Amino acid sequence: MQHDIKTAVVYQIYPKSFYSHHGNATGDLAGVIDKLDYLAWLGVDYLWLTPFFQSPQQDNGYDISDYYAIDPAYGTMADLERLIAEAKSRGIGLMLDIVVNHTSTAHAWFRQARQGRDNPYRDFYIWRDTPNNWQSKFGGSAWEFDADSGQYYLHLFDKTQADLNWANPAVRQAVYAMMRFWADKGVAGFRLDVINLISKPGDFPEDHSDGRRFYTDGPRIHDYLQEMHREVFAGRDLLTVGEMSSTSMTHCIDYTQPTRRELSMVFNFHHLKVDYPNGEKWVAAPFDFIELKRILSAWQVGMVSGGGWNATFWCNHDQPRVVSRFGDDGRYRVESAKMLASVLHGLRGTPYIYQGEEIAMANPGFTRIDDYRDVESLNAWHALRAQGVAAEAVLAAIRQKSRDNARTPMQWDNGPHAGFSRVAPWIDVAPDADRVNVAAALADPGSVLHHYRQLIALRKRHPIFADGDYRCLTPEHPAIWAYLRASEAARLLVIANFRAEPQDFDPPLAPLPVGWRWRLLSANLPASPDQPGPLRLRPYEALIYLAER
Ligand code: TEU
């Protein structure tokens, strides 16, 4: 199963919150099968499922204790095999989320490793007699003391997620064997969790910061990815996407330049830190629109010129809902959600849609810390409160930034538990589910859902979406993001008002080649002008124009 990555669209599913076929508090694989017709109707080409392997669920499955076993909460191997087959029969490929920077400390390898320093699995992990000052991304030291064996082990994430030692060839071969097992099952691709963190330096020097500069895009990362390509991807039709934490453009061009045989594409997160004042996540703050445009435009131009390929996205299971973050989840929820979809899907790259984004699900706005489940958010709560930060200030930051904003149950209808389950879900349903749900969106031709479906279809119909280069027309405009995609055969003009105030705008366009003419391809409001300018943009108005021979 291989779609052209340049016209494909990927839909991300967080199975725990997607749909419970069995009616339980958490979603399951059978629930994904139940919704395949909806996903086929939407027009997506791949489904990326976040991990459903056996796990203690300390980090909702990103703490794997058996890479070859389906966690019973999600179903059985037969369910997964049926899901792969049913998706394939609808022309949809299934992508697994492979977490191999670390395992759960409940994994058999780690349980062996902590038996003693001479255990064959000891060197599957990273041990030191004394910790350095590196910090975990979930707060606190990146080292945890293991009393049984008298040493500290490295964990860049939670202390129950021990980092694997990729310098050990036995680790790499065990990972490749596992990936081949799933590739042989017929999966269509892999999302590789924080894969650019796997290459640690030979030593572990103290750092003036949290240590990430020593292991991010580490010394042997490209060797490892090229080896993974040889051992797993070569000769198979697989879409591979790397989650690249705190990475650089140079490395991302190298990760995705086809002749280097590493990955198909990468996620980077620089554009999702424009509401982190001084890089600090846990502070409630507005987003910097000019910076958002600057970063996304730089990555468009840089990756095009370098021959690389972006995965483009607003949301995932770690990020707040984009309509709440960069749009307006109140009065202009529908208009702003459609606008955000238009500007993302007009970019060069492979667009990812996160479950619920297509119906403009919003942050739930929980008011109590007991409503939250995410280990990162709860660690932040305890750490900030211990520092004396006022409870309401911490709650305001968590309400805006928590990963749980994206993890409330998918809203299928206005019935009990939003049609997600038959019992109270593992995390509360968002309060707007009675109005914001798939059933209502399907029935409304003007819904955000129908707009996403149109954008997906346009990408497949017009090569300019894949092939055009990119130029931002409004880098300094305080409200408008307009950009031009150009190829030999066509021009694509995307214009978006990111504000609730009307904007006068006349796009600075060169004359079209003789015989070419602009036509309106997509709009998020009725009665839009059929020519691009001069315009009076309405609140959150988004327009896409096409010109071709
Ligand atoms: O996330 C990587 C990561 O850095 C996350 O901490 C994320 O960027 C951050 O929470 C945003 O503020 C991956 C997975 O997507 C995440 O769900 C896991 O918790 C993490 O790795 C560890 O496996």
What does this structure look like?
The structure is a single chain. The protein is an alpha/beta fold. It has three domains: 10-106 and 162-455, TIM Barrel, CATH 3.20.20.80; 108-161, Oligo-1,6-glucosidase, domain 2 (Alpha-Beta Complex), CATH 3.90.400; 466-548, Immunoglobulin-like (Sandwich). 28% of the residues lie in helices and 17% in strands. The protein has helices at residues 29-34, 36-42, 77-89, 108-113, 169-184, 212-215, 221-233, 249-256, 289-306, 322-325, 333-345, 375-386, 391-401, 438-443, 448-461, 464-467, and strands spanning 10-13, 46-49, 53-54, 66-70, 93-98, 102-104, 127-128, 143-146, 151-154, 161-163, 189-192, 239-243, 265-267, 311-312, 350-354, 471-472, 480-486, 490-497, 503-505, 517-523, 535-537, 542-548. The strands form six sheets. An eight-stranded parallel sheet has the order 13-12-11-5-2-1-15-14. A hairpin with a 3-residue loop joins strand 17 (480-486) and strand 18 (490-497). The longest helix is centred in the middle third of the chain and has 18 residues, at 289-306. 51% of the residues are buried. The structure holds 1-O-alpha-D-glucopyranosyl-D-fructose.
CATH architecture of the largest domain: Alpha-Beta Barrel
Strands, total number: 22
Question: What ligand species are in this complex?
Answer: 1-O-alpha-D-glucopyranosyl-D-fructose
Average pLDDT, rounded to a whole number, is 97
Distance between the first and last residues' Cα: 33 Å
Helix content: 25-40%
Number of helices, where a helix is a run of at least 4 consecutive DSSP H or I residues: 16
Which CATH C-level class of the largest domain is it?
A: Alpha Beta
Bin the strand percentage: 15-25%
Which fold does the CATH topology of the largest domain refer to? TIM Barrel
Biggest sheet descriptor: 8 strands, parallel
Biggest sheet strand order reads 13-12-11-5-2-1-15-14
Provide the structure class. Answer: alpha/beta
